[in-house]
Design a protein that fits this description.
The complex is a heterodimer. In chain A, the strands form six sheets. Chain A has a six-stranded mixed β-sheet with strand order 6-9-10-3-11-12, with helices on both faces. Chain A has 19 helices and 24 strands. By secondary structure, chain A is of the alpha/beta class. By secondary structure, chain B is mainly α. Chain B has a single domain, classed as ABC transporter involved in vitamin B12 uptake, BtuC. Chain B has helices at residues 2-7, 17-20, 26-45, 52-77, 85-100, 103-131, 136-155, 166-173, 182-200, 202-212, 214-219, 224-250, 262-271, 283-302, 307-326, and strands at residues 175-177, 180-181. Chain B is globular, with a radius of gyration of 19 Å. Classes of the chains: A alpha/beta, B mainly alpha. At the A-B interface, helix 10, helix 11, helix 13 and strand 20 of A face helix 10 and helix 11 of B.
């Protein structure tokens, strides 16, 4: 870049979570006075990288230098101290406090040991002005502000800490178009003031407008680094996608099965997260849910499973309208639904309990007579499942928390298969597990579908959706925006519709591969 | 958990220790070790301390607390707490004695009526916690106050004049098997039933599951609200049954007779290694905790420690035990 020495440098950074490699020998160089965009698919290692930069997690190996001298951050506060401030995707504001309180929350100005409200207000006003949001009153309560204004407060809060490097992780995803334009002005001004900005976004057009320099991550490595504008969108998408997984998916059935519709939704809406969703899944079919993270896919699965209150619209099972009031109602009896939840550690498993207890937990009613567990029947079914899914465990009476991530996920799936469900909802089941186990799960999913199960499968991994699904419904802002079938189911189409733009408009596709 | 499945079945009868030592929870072992230390300390103070009569007497006294702590343990395993114990105990005792005043039918129904009053208190707690989502600490404290008020209205604030039925006295003080007080047999039966419920039934699995991670249990299709409701009802019923036994022991009910059982019942459960956050603990531990608390009380009273001193020592012992075991989170 323009000859200046790098402000911050990361070299050979690796990080593992259990058996999963999140980052492998990653490199990053940040220069003052520039905006550096980081691109990559979900799970490519971007978040881990910035968490390491911001002191949230410690790297397993590698070194970081700031102004040429080596640094380590024991905590986010230490990183802040060195001038690295991060704005995370999730808001970190306390709704019941005022804007000014929130802005100075980590280090309020004090006078005689008490918070100096005057000074606090002055700091807040300055920070808000710098963030281009001087129309927000410092004494307003955060809970009274709309989401896009809160995001501006979040940026002001970061600026009040006097950063030298400012990291924005999907910081614009909640903003309206007008706010995005204002944020961009602010970011460009900050760049001219000599700050280094690290910008993470899924929105290609934002990156094209803003970035000076881009780095692409894939599978925990930085695969390319180039000055912005030197590569076409096509090339960038190719870099992001990679091609390693394509051979691990089982073959799909040649033609769409003509079986009966098992699960159907008509005009399903919930709060402001689900918007008039209609869909149907036939027996033997794997239907994918695509789109960016957090567009209502999780809520949709929870809605089917009877978790959400105040659902509007209709759910039909086997063509008949049903009202599913709880997971108990969803999983028991005629409906026979199973949900593999998003977070196996808090929603799928009771980690301190044994493998045996976890495996039979969802099927206790089937394994017991008059409330008393039939241990022989339990053992038989557990043995079947451990064999079927090849769960690797040192025994059935060890805590399930001692298993590897992939085997934990197998336990979650096995515990539902013990009920022989007819409808299987999967909420991003392959997140954080190794490629080998992923492959086994893909095979299993196809096997279950072939045996007649109706499967609704949400994944943040586009390759998976393409490799496993007969159809993919792409959600955007709580609504189904597009349905992709057969040859139309490509990465390019998925990404384009996930961003809610037509593939031709941004020309990120280079024609279909077929 | 594994020690409950393997060693728990005999836990109700205060167990033979060496058999489970290899598998047992360190907290349970520590509690039993403390019992031994207390007995040794006591025997230094007085020769009678190790005599069979004295030990049997202690076991009998312990069984009242044991019955009450059984219900408390169930609630604590869920990660909740039942603070309505004092007046559930008193209500059970008073209502059983009151029923006895209504002729022979009243006498016959005295015990079930007393227990049902406790179950009713427990159901109110259960509805509050499971369906209205009120923190158990608040709702059980409130029902305790309401139960107290109702009892005061009923008795006019004086000690009730009704006396316990013969059946109540027989359960609390009689002997069916020579040498073994009935109260101890009752505790053993209730304990065995609880061990069975916790280890062999789907209800027990659900209790541990909810205590470890309610969300995961709910998403597994468990009717978590029903389980919580039943647990509180059982706790209320057992507290009242403890009250019925106490009334039989003292021949009549008394105001605030249950006050002395709230802290000890919680302490017994926690000292026995049950996590105060729920999800982890074995009944054998609760047995050890109950005996430990009873011996501690006995020694303090033999040493003529005033009530205030006893309360201070309980509190300190509970805090010390919590520091030792309670800080390991229920799950990571």
């Amino acid at each position: 870049m323009d000859g200046t020495a790098p402000l911050f440098r990361m070299e050979g950074i690796s990080k593992r979570y259990g058996g999963v490699r999140a980052l492998e020998k990653a490199e990053l160089t940040v220069t003052a006075g520039s905006i550096h965009a980081i691109l990559g698919e979900n799970g490519a290692g971007k978040s881990t990288l910035i968490k390491i930069m911001a002191g949230v997690v410690a790297p397993d190996e590698g070194r970081m230098t700031l102004d040429g001298s080596e640094v380590t951050f024991a905590s986010p506060a230490a990183a802040n101290q060195s001038g690295i401030v991060c704005i995370f995707q999730e808001l970190s504001l306390i709704p019941e406090l005022s804007v000014a309180d929130n802005i100075v929350i980590s280090n309020p100005p004090k006078r005689f040991g008490m918070i100096d409200r005057k000074a606090q207000r002055k700091i807040a006003e300055e920070a808000l002005a710098r963030a281009g949001a001087s129309d927000i009153h410092p004494r307003a309560l955060v809970k009274d502000l709309p989401l896009s204004r809160r995001q501006m407060v979040e940026i002001a809060k970061a600026l009040a800490r006097k950063p030298r490097i400012l990291i924005l992780d999907e910081a614009t995803s909640a903003l309206t178009a007008a706010d995005v334009a204002r944020v961009f002005e602010v970011l460009k001004r900050l760049r001219s003031e000599g700050l280094a900005l690290l910008y993470i976004s899924h929105r290609m057009n934002e990156i094209a407008e803003l970035a000076d320099h881009c780095t692409v991550f894939r599978n925990g490595r930085n695969v390319a680094s180039y000055p912005a504008g030197s590569k076409s969108d096509n090339e960038v998408v190719e870099l992001m996608i990679g091609r390693e997984y394509s051979h691990i998916f089982p073959p799909k059935p040649a033609s769409a099965p003509a079986a009966a519709t098992v699960l159907e939704a008509r005009n399903l809406s919930w709060a402001d997260r689900l918007d008039n969703i209609s869909l149907s899944v036939r027996a033997g079919e794997v239907v994918g849910l695509g789109g960016l993270d957090g567009q209502g896919q999780r809520e949709l699965l929870l809605a089917f499973f009877g978790v959400l209150r105040g659902l509007r619209g209709e759910v039909l099972i086997d063509g008949r309208p049903v009202s599913i009031a709880s997971p108990t109602a969803a999983s028991h009896g005629r409906i026979g639904m199973a949900l593999i939840p998003e977070d196996r550690k808090t929603e799928g498993l009771m980690l301190p309990m044994t493998v045996r207890e976890n495996l039979s937990f969802a099927a206790l009613d089937r394994l017991s007579k008059a409330g008393i567990i039939d241990r022989a029947a339990e053992q038989r079914l557990i043995d079947d499942m451990v064999g079927l899914l090849a769960i690797k465990t040192a025994g059935l009476d060890i805590p399930v928390g001692a298993l590897s991530g992939g085997n934990q996920q197998k336990v979650v799936i096995a515990k539902w298969l013990m009920r022989q469900p007819r409808i299987i909802l999967l909420n991003d089941p392959t997140r954080g597990i190794d490629v080998g186990t992923k492959q086994e799960l893909y095979q299993l999913m196809r096997k279950l579908a072939d045996a007649g199960a109706a499967i609704l499968f949400y994944s943040t991994d586009y390759d998976e959706l393409i490799g496993c699904c007969d159809r993919v419904l792409v959600l955007y802002d709580g609504a189904v925006k597009r349905e992709l079938v057969g040859a139309g189911l490509t990465e390019h189409a998925l990404i384009a519709s996930a961003l809610n733009i037509h593939g031709d408009d941004v020309r990120i596709g280079q024609g279909e591969h077929a | 958990m594994s020690e409950t499945t393997h060693g728990g079945i005999m836990g109700g009868i205060a167990g033979r220790m060496p058999k489970f030592i290899r598998r047992a929870d360190p907290a349970v072992l520590t509690a039993f070790a403390c019992i031994v230390v207390l007995l040794l300390l006591g025997s230094l103070y007085s020769r009678n301390f190790l005599s069979p009569e004295y030990l049997l007497q202690q076991l009998k006294v312990a069984s009242f607390l044991g019955v009450i702590a059984t219900g408390m343990m169930l609630v604590i395993l869920l990660g909740q707490i039942d603070l309505s114990v004092p007046w559930a105990v008193a209500a059970g005792a008073m209502m059983a004695c009151a029923a006895a005043a209504y002729g022979s039918v009243g006498v016959a129904l005295a015990i079930p009526f007393g227990v049902l009053c406790g179950v009713a208190i427990g159901i109110v707690n259960g509805i509050g916690v499971a369906y209205l989502r009120i923190p158990s600490m608040i709702i059980t404290l409130a029902t305790n106050a309401v139960a107290q008020g109702l009892m005061v209205v009923y008795t006019g604030g004086f000690s009730p004049q009704d006396s316990a039925t013969a059946a109540m006295r027989y359960l609390a003080t009689g002997f069916t098997i020579p040498g073994v007080p009935n109260a101890v047999i009752i505790w053993a039966l209730i304990g065995a039933a609880m061990v069975f419920a916790l280890t062999r039934t789907s209800f027990g699995r659900a209790v541990y599951g909810i205590g470890n991670r309610e969300r995961a249990a709910y998403l597994s299709g468990i009717d978590t609200r029903r389980v919580v409701m039943i647990a509180f009802a059982v706790s209320g019923g057992l507290s009242a049954f403890g009250g019925v036994l106490l009334a039989g022991y003292a021949s009549k009910a008394a105001q605030s007779m249950g006050d002395a059982y709230l802290l000890p019942s919680i302490a017994a459960v926690v000292l026995g290694g049950t996590s105060i956050l729920g999800g982890r603990g074995s009944y054998l531990g609760t047995v050890a905790g109950v005996i430990l608390i009873t011996l501690l009380q006995s020694i303090l009273s033999v040493m003529q420690m005033p009530e205030a001193g006893r309360q201070i020592i309980y509190g300190v012992v509970i805090v010390a035990m919590l520091l030792l075991y309670g800080r390991a989170p229920a799950s990571r």
